[in-house]
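Handout, section B. The chain below has 191 residues.
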Amino acid sequence: MLHLRGESAQIAFGLRLAAQLRPPCVIYLEGDLGTGKTTLVRGILRGLGHQGSVRSPTYTLIEPYEVTGSCLYHLDLYRLSDPGELEYLGVRDLLGECSLLLVEWPERGGGRLPPPDLRIRIEHAPPGRDLRLEPCSQAGRELASSLDPESASPLSAQQKIHVGDASNGAPHAKITRVVATEVACEEENVG
């Protein structure tokens, strides 16, 4: 589990995550309204070199971004009224060899999304947020493990990291505990 203190810490974790992302990769972002899913995406995009604005795709459902030789698709399914709408949006066609999919509210996809490599569950934990990393594939295990430089186990799935603002305003991270676990993920197949 990760504990992030403030928006800048969430963006800093997104930067760190971006440095480890390798396409193709599907990440589910789960959490209540206001937990900072789009903030985390903003950090990932900044880490991948995107300089423009980052909009929440709440009304458009999908926002595409061209970054460092990859296509990143940010999906927000909160307003999806029927999982069948994903067929009309062409979600099946989005995941190619150079694609990254970041999906908010994946449970609304009703099993029509590609299975995740990694689930990131975000919870309110004043004064910040708790994040739980749950790998669902070998690529997800490698990604979660790479976020913990002190981990000797490639199957390290959950980490507790305290991230906050240093006195000079720069984000910093300190790993305080690593728990090796295996997480079972539902297989969700498209169509």
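Note. The longest strand covers residues 156-165. Compare this with the example in section A.
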